[in-house]
From TrEMBL:
Compartments reported by the entry: Cell membrane
Entry's transmembrane regions: 173-192, 199-218, 230-251, 272-295, 307-328, 358-378, 504-520, 532-551, 571-594, 620-638, 650-673
Protein name: MMPL family transporter
InterPro entries registered for this protein in UniProt: MMPL_dom, Mycobact_MmpL, SSD
Alphabetized PANTHER family for the sequence: MEMBRANE PROTEIN MJ1562-RELATED (PTHR33406), MEMBRANE PROTEIN YDFJ (PTHR33406:SF13)
Source organism of this protein record: Kineosporia corallincola
Keyword Cell membrane annotated: yes
Length: 712
């Protein structure tokens, strides 16, 4: 491949230049064609919401909560007519349904002191960052407050999210990519200490824009989630630079050893490029496994995310060699940092790990165990209201309701779909008797006859422990005539549990098995891939443990991001974090072990293989991790809490993997396993079409008597 690329380098450059230009146009067109689809076909909550949407124009999944408060010394009962006028004005909003004290006379809509009341306002769910009724709603409520003399405020998940976000227009992909690129450039200047630092950035720009071009084509075939644009820009930036860093460093190393420029290009592609190919395919497979999850959003993330490593790998293995062949030596100036020898610091570190391998392994395992511990309290669901805002009108309205004896369940009502108006009262009566339900009231019948019964629990149903009330309500009403299903936040949480996590063991098994097979071919070993997969799973558990401790339990999230404890992790986040992080962290395993395998084949010594492998790749792995970390740090600047959780989990996971795991545990375990690391029996090698690696006899070197590094 390298020979072909070097011979046709101008054609290769021309091809990618055309892709770059086309990608610029695609990058501006893609955001308008992305989907904000959170559907869960075949699940009760989603199908019921669809029925309600067809009948009423609303899904019943989430409500806004207008709160009306009478002047001091008066009660809301004295102002029922004014409250009715406000509700009537709200009902005139496009597709709106309103339910409250003014229509029903139900005193359960009142606070304990009778001075305030709340209504439930259902509006069509917004698509994208813009809320289509927000401005009209604010205007209607402001006018109502002036005309009635009541204090009028609104709360709800949308309003709380708006109060907590400084930027309600949504995050800027371009701005965050530029922030990540600046951080990456700083690291590249440190690594190369020459103008060569600009080459990986150029490669990343081509890879990102080319990926957007392919994503644009993908939107013609299937829906693609809005999250993909952030993944392409920021993960694409880190992945393309990481891959370029490995190849360029190997090219510099071979040049320092006296090879001609084109020979160095060929060697770099044959060695480092092989590791890049294995890494790219591993990341792609870990993402494409998401297609087995019956959730359109996650499937589209799988397809879209898969393109990132594949396109980056193509660009790195074609455009980068062409550029190095054309201008590599000229831009590698001034050559302050030399690549002729391995890093002294990392080589010394490797020798220390080998010498104290039992201690190193023990420290690494203990540290991972400490990080894993909180994962057993991990909750799946929606971000709790307490983490969305701690000030602002929406927060104050919810606080006033709480002080008046009205729980946070008003934010997450459950809506039962009933076939006819005649059946609705019985469903409402049965639901209202369930412990933990504040009230249950039918809506006006829809034109089709389908009638919604709104059920308000005492507490919000946002995670897999608080949704028990949903099961209780379902048990109470499912046997009644006309019952069609439940919709709302609680049923949605259960939908995701059924659709995502019932399939998660299958996703995990597929990713682990395919990765294992690929790594057996790459390392020509049975033990190294098995260790890599198991260690990756443990490090992922540690990341989820840290995310649980930091975000869900709130140990530092307020201080760092101004966000209170979330109480739960959004449904789709754990699967996406797992898929991306499993592949990305495996990159470093491949980089490190591929070089160790190369050195072992050359010397026959595990100790020398560890020293030279880590001495050559330690600085690269750390630098590559920092580059990805800067990309994720830029992504964490978005106002959306879920994207912050995604970005910080990926960023911390990359740093944890590059430091504790790859720099400490991996060399310690490889040293402990000795010659068994490199064994691949003949039958398995034939099955995988690779050269076998028989178990070598133990040598003095393996027993701990090291030869000097310079001895071949």
């Amino acid at each position: 491949m390298a020979t072909f690329v070097v011979r046709h380098r101008w054609w290769v450059v021309g091809f990618w230049l055309a892709a770059l230009v086309a990608g610029v146009g695609a990058a501006s067109a893609v955001p308008d064609r992305l989907s904000y689809d959170f559907s869960l076909p075949g699940q009760e909550g989603y199908e019921t919401a669809v029925d309600l949407g067809e009948a009423y124009g609303i899904t019943g999944e989430m409500s806004r909560v207008p709160v009306y408060t009478a002047p001091a010394g008066e009660t809301i009962a004295e102002h029922r007519d004014e409250a009715a006028r406000i509700d009537q004005a709200l009902a005139a909003l496009p597709g709106a349904q309103v339910l409250g004290y003014a229509q029903t006379g139900d005193e359960r809509f009142l606070t304990d002191d009778g001075r305030s009341t709340f209504s439930l306002l259902f509006t069509p769910s917004p698509e994208g960052w813009a809320d289509p009724v927000a401005d009209q709603l604010a205007s209607t409520l402001a006018t109502a407050a002036q005309q009635t003399g009541l204090d009028v405020r609104t709360t709800g998940y949308l309003e709380l999210s708006t109060d907590s976000a400084e930027d309600t227009e949504g995050p800027s992909v371009l701005a965050e990519t530029l922030i990540g690129a600046v951080g990456a450039l700083v690291v590249l200047i440190f690594v190369f200490a020459s103008f060569l630092a600009l080459v990986p950035l150029l490669v990343a720009a081509v890879a990102i824009l080319s990926t957007f071009l392919v994503v644009l084509g993908l939107t013609e075939i299937t829906d693609v989630s809005f999250v993909v644009q952030f993944l392409v820009a920021l993960i694409g930036l880190g992945v393309a630079i990481d891959y370029s860093l490995l190849v360029v460093s190997r090219w510099r190393e071979e040049r320092a050893h006296g090879m001609s420029n084109d020979e160095a290009v060929g060697t770099a592609v044959r060695t480092a490029g092989h590791a890049v190919l294995a890494s790219g395919v591993t990341v792609a497979i870990s993402l494409i496994a998401l297609v087995v999850v019956p959730v359109p959003m996650l499937r589209s993330m799988g397809f879209g995310g898969m393109l990132i490593p594949l396109v980056s790998t193509m660009v790195v293995l074609t455009l980068l060699p062409a550029l190095l062949s054309l201008v590599g030596p000229r831009v590698d100036w001034p050559r302050i940092r030399k690549e002729g020898n391995a890093s002294r610091a990392w080589s010394a570190w490797a020798r220390g790990v080998v010498r104290y391998r039992w201690v190193a392994a023990g420290v690494g395992i203990a540290a991972l165990g400490l990080a894993v511990a909180p994962v057993f309290g991990l909750q799946f669901g929606m971000t709790s209201s307490g983490s969305l805002a701690d000030s602002g009108p929406a927060h104050e309205a919810l606080t006033d309701l709480g002080e008046g004896g009205v729980g946070s369940g008003v934010l997450s009502p459950i809506t039962a779909a009933v076939a006819s108006p005649a059946d609705a009262p019985a469903v409402a009566e049965a639901a209202s008797r369930v412990e933990g339900v504040r009230l249950a009231v039918p809506l006006e019948p829809s034109p089709s006859g389908l009638t919604g019964v709104v059920i308000v629990p005492d507490h919000e149903t946002v995670d897999n422990t608080s949704v028990a009330i949903t099961d209780d309500v379902r048990d109470a009403v499912s046997g009644l005539p006309g019952y069609r299903g439940l919709a709302g936040a609680g049923p949605v949480v259960q939908d995701y549990q059924n659709a995502v996590y019932d399939r998660f063991p299958l996703v995990l098994t597929l990713i682990a098995l395919i990765t294992f097979v690929l790594l057996v071919r790459t390392f020509r070993s049975v033990l190294l891939p098995l260790k890599a997969v198991l260690l990756n799973l443990v490090s992922l558990a540690a990341v989820f443990g840290l995310a649980t401790w930091f975000w869900q339990e709130g140990h530092g999230s307020q201080a760092v991001f101004g966000v209170s404890e979330t109480g739960a992790m959004e449904f789709w986040l754990p699967v996406l974090i797992f898929a991306f992080l499993f592949g990305l962290s495996m990159d470093y395993e491949v980089f490190l072990l591929a070089r160790m395998r190369e050195e072992y084949d050359r010397t026959g010594s595990t100790s020398i293989a560890i020293e030279r492998g880590l001495g050559r790749t330690g600085r690269l792995i750390t630098s590559a991790a920092l580059i990805l970390f800067f990309s994720f740090a830029a992504l964490a600047s978005t106002p959306d809490t879920d994207i912050k959780v995604l970005a910080t989990s990926l960023g911390v996971g990359i740093l944890l993997d590059a430091t504790l795991v790859r720099s400490l545990l991996v060399p310690a375990l490889v040293s402990l396993f000795g010659r068994y690391n490199w064994w691949l029996p003949v039958p398995l090698a034939r099955l995988l079409f690779v050269e076998p690696s028989p178990l070598r006899p133990a040598t003095e070197v393996e027993e701990g008597e090291r030869r000097p590094v310079g001895v071949g």
